[in-house]
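fold description:
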Amino acid sequence: MRFRKLNYFITVAEELHFGRAAARLHIAQPPLSQQIKAIEDELGAVLFERSSQKVSLTPAGEAFLPQARALLQTWEKIQEQVRSVANGTAGNLSLGFVWAAGTPHFSKGIAQFKQDNPSVTLNLEEMTTTHALDALRTEKIDLAMVFLNPLMDITDLEHQNYETQQHLLALPENHALAQKERVPLSDLHQLPFISFVRQAHPSLYDQIMHALHTAGVEPNIVQIARLTQTTRTLVAAGVGVALVPESTQFDQREGLTYRPIDGVLPELDIHFVWRKNSLTPLMERLITHLQTQVPK
């Protein structure tokens, strides 16, 4: 039974007059009568008692009316949900992102998107580049925000730039280098150095080490930290210095300071990445929204 027929039945049941119902539906009365007869034939039950003076619901019609209203409401809700998913204003989306993406403008962008799209469920999880790309390829997440560079093989994926960050030097606030406005890269030679785990961002790690060696810097790695929070804690405790994305400075910590670096280090290009042919309207809307939040 077409849902339009349900609306015909409900309108006649509310008006109890075929002429008024036809006028309300903007159709002629004979076709309306034919549609009601078709519904009755399909159900195998008479829904209306008709006479020259009045139209009334039969017991079968009275039983069918609330069911018809419920069916029509369900159909209208389904249509609304489908349209919302189609235009990206509803649905579920899982996003894996590297810690460097956790800037104030990222947080503000996510909060605003959730406020503007209450029918969207965002599942957010901090991941390393390696973890996020693996999760993307195995369809555990829909979208990733990771470090990318030309040396990485992502020919099986699609991507779009989010933002580019520079490296900063994180060091204890009482460190001698903290007295400088900018720290030459060569000053890091043989300093106690805290590094991130290579497996987390292998290509980026290799680029950083190559840049240090090219500058004649042999880092004295005294600690490897799996989490950026651990890196900051160790630097503040005076264990060593560390190269960190500029977004790290937004998380202020007592005993810790940051300085720009004079020297050639790889830029930190953060990209949105997704599986080929999997870009949905919801993903497009989120990507566009977050890109507009990045300071120019």
